[in-house]
Recover the amino acids of this structure.
């Protein structure tokens, strides 16, 4: 449940960052910061997908989830610097879902 919430939030973040990077009038059109936010949201999405597929490898799943959590958190910070509050909220939801997944999944409890 938490993995799917993280995937949906990261996918929304990717779509929003791609929109903000391309549309005129957003204030960050074509900037390197917007591209980095797009890549960070993509990394969080890819990490959430990989972690959801790793049911049998306990510690590797925890490491991948932790790296996806780091990507989502840093993307939220980048969005805050870009003054894109909706992207901050979406990536914070993804980071919170990944953090709760790390805390409450028995296979990942020894990682954090």
């Amino acid at each position: 449940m938490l993995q799917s919430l993280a995937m949906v939030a990261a996918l929304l973040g990717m779509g929003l960052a791609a929109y903000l990077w391309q549309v005129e009038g957003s204030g960050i059109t074509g900037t390197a910061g917007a591209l980095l936010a797009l890549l960070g949201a993509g990394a969080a999405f890819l990490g959430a997908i990989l972690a959801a597929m790793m049911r049998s490898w306990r510690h590797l799943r925890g490491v991948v989830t932790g790296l996806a959590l780091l990507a989502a958190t840093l993307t939220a910070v980048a969005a805050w610097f870009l003054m894109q509050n909706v992207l901050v909220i979406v990536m914070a939801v993804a980071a919170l879902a990944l953090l709760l997944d790390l805390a409450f999944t028995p296979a990942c409890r020894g990682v954090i």
Notes: The first helix runs from residue 2 to 22.
